[in-house]
Amino acid sequence: MTDHDDTTHLLSRRAALRLGIAGGIAGLGLPHLLGKPALAQGAAATAAAREAAKKAPAGRVVVGITQEPTVLNPLMLKIEVDDGVHFSLFDALFRIGPDGVITPNLAAAVPTQKNGGISQDGLNWRVRLRDGVRWHDGKPFTAEDVKYTLELITKPNFRAWRTAGHSLLRDITVVSPTEIAWRMEKPFAPYLSFLTETFIVPKHVLETAADPNTADFNKAPVGTGAFKWGKRTAGDNLELVANRDYHGEGPYIETLVFKYIPDLTVFYTQFKSGDIDLTGQVYITPDNYKEAKTLPNKVVTLVPRQTIEGIHFNLEKPQFKDLAVRQALYAAIDRAAIIDALYYGVPSATESYMPRSSFYFNDKLPVQTFDVKAARRLLDEAGWKPGRDGIRAKDGVRLSFNNTTTSGDHLREQVQQFLKQSWADIGVEMNIANLPAAVLWGDVWAKSQFDTVISGVVFMVASDPDVTNRFHSRAIGAKGGRGSNTTQYSNPEVDALLDKGTATFDPEERRKIYTRVQELVRHDLPFMPLYQVTAVLGHKKSVQGFVPNSNTRTESWNAAGWSRAG
Amino acid sequence: MHRFLLGRLVQSAVLLVIVSVIGYVILGLIPGGPLSQFGLDPGLTAADIERLKEQMGLNQPLWLRYLDWAWRLLHGDWGVSLRDGTPVLTVIARHLVATLLLMGSSTVIAIAAGTWIGIRSATHRYSAFDYAATIGAMVALSIPTFWFGLVGIYVFSLKLGWLPAGNMYTIGDASVLDYLHHLILPSLVLSLVHIAVWSRYMRTAMLGVINQDFVKTARAKGVAERRILMKHVVGNALLPMITLAGVQLPSILTGALVTETVFTWPGMGRLFYDSLGYSDYPVVMGILMFSAIVVILGNLIADMVVAIVDPRIRLA
User: Fold this and answer.
1) Tell me, what CATH number does B150's domain have?
2) Which chain B residues contact residue A240 at CB under 8 A?
3) What family is it from (chain A) (predicted)?
4) Cis amide bond preceding A190, omega within 30
5) What confidence score (pLDDT) does residue B223 get?
6) In this complex, is the C-beta atom of B186 within 8 Å of any C-beta atom belonging to chain A?
7) What are phi and psi of A533, to 5 degrees?
8) What is the fold of A305-534?
């Protein structure tokens, strides 16, 4: 697993803006025109889908993944690979496309303040639902299912994956079988994005279970999605079959298989040999990119992900309290060398925690330049004098610290060697102290029991620019806070901006807020961005309709639109 | 014989308790725990996490968790996987089939080929065959299995296209022939190292017997060379091999992690590794206890078979 701490991805490029427009049109009473899920966002995909629409589902696509999907209830504690399965079996109220536009899925329209779906104070929401949708077992889908789902998530005994956002809901009311309304305890703009990742589960199936945590449903799920549950061969693969009664476009393939291959070398070999049709999460490693491009009958594309790889400081450690130290360390990194020599030029440099494809991305941040002299000068001026052993110190604090990452990640380990040398050059001692992923992402990370960590993090939750969980001082887990502010970053201006941002619904207003947040974070350097991750995705030429979508956590978000040529 | 059996059973029970305590304590000491494997929502509070731990039975002290687990085990309840809620025995059973297929076939190949090579090496000492077998065994023992696996895949799958690059069956096919086709490469690769071990042992055992007095006597009596070889030498040389087989038996059931990984074979080795990675305590402990039982039983059976085959040994 590369991105352990990926809580969620997503980000909306011009999303919010267009969202308003899409929602507005939908609200004008044209739900059935916009009704079909926006599956095929790309031109090629649309053409392929149209052609495939003429025939019945046929053929099979095998998606290779490196971890085994085991949690089939989409609301429960899960890992990233489970998402691929959930997106195919279930539908959420809304869906987010590669362009960041939120469109209706089980809902008939996207609620906005403009169309009256969300009240002006942001507190009252009303969602109209698509009519005529059926569960895989033939029962009709209604607003009761949505109510049941939203209530189940916050039940104290339910092992929910995410309660944030949902816990603000009050008075969930079924207005009619196709309309639901609720009140929110406080305005929370990111909630719409959260709902693109909240899959609706059937009330009539789960309600009868004694304990939803252990219900039979969790092993043989029933959804409304384009694919129905097939079977799982433990430790090997999981098979879904086409839902011919799907309410949206597709599916065009008869079977969708998720094949589990844990070893990266073996994973790539099986892509070469043709055993897998498409490479899923973790993808092809950058060192294989050059060769992968030359493989016959395969399409290999670079797809930017939302993950930002960076070096995270524990700001409560005395060495890192001084901004000059962080600035000096940043200046002493030859980032271009890391990207080009170690990562084969695949990822791209960035200064922000926000993916550059986002509507909220700030492209005016100062660009880091590799300058060892400047780094030394910064430390000299701040009073960090080299000791007898050549390591700088100030007020009894030596400029020495541990750097930790997941052991066994050979590319990250090379980055560490490189950093160790670079920083030794300016009188800083870095020791490598790696931990297995299972250990690192436990208390060590969550409770800030580290000096520095190299990690790939997705900073946003769902398709929203809000980063309260990462940068608000209320979110410091080590200090009893609610969230993942593991660097223990605290800046009152950032706090105030983040609070304002979650209560603001207007995209342009929000853009100003989050542009400033990025400026402040870039200046304070609680973490040093190394690069934005780019995935090397491969699929057979015969698999058509594949559209990458960096706003979701899975490449199979639109498996309903895939088809097999020949 | 009965007293021996009873004694061994008591010994075995004590051993199982010790293994379980050590296993449980070590697992409990690993930081992180099952929760850290899930992509936890950054918005969860400490209280949320405590609640989740409670729901998963992780908030109690280690010794209490152990006692609870051991008590259930005594009543036949091996627990459920923390990852997907499947009963541990079901999880093990599913992977056992795959492992038995792979390890069973490679063991059969190893014993057959190893015995033959060992006998031939011993009877044709210092011949070209003997030297070749010695060098071959050295190579097979010193080069790691995954290397043979990768070379095998490169040559037979990617270059020649004769054999599949891994997996137990073709998705959508799964006929007996298809299973066999997928079995060839991994079982051959896996058997290499076992052939090496087996043939070396067999050669040594043969040489130990071949120069003994009763063989010379038989030869002096004019017994045909072939009969001497088969009845007197091979028969006696096989005795220590039974013990060896007993020792190897557990690995047939517990799988071969590396080979299973290289060939994406959903067996016990990989199950154990994955479960450890997820800190899936019930499954890890289940496999540990299962392996311990198999090891103890394997040794017990080997001892008894040797006693039956070789009347000189008296179990008491």
Assistant:
1) 1.10.3720.10
2) none
3) Belongs to the bacterial solute-binding protein 5 family.
4) no
5) 79
6) no
7) -65, 135
8) Dipeptide-binding Protein; domain 3 (3.10.105)
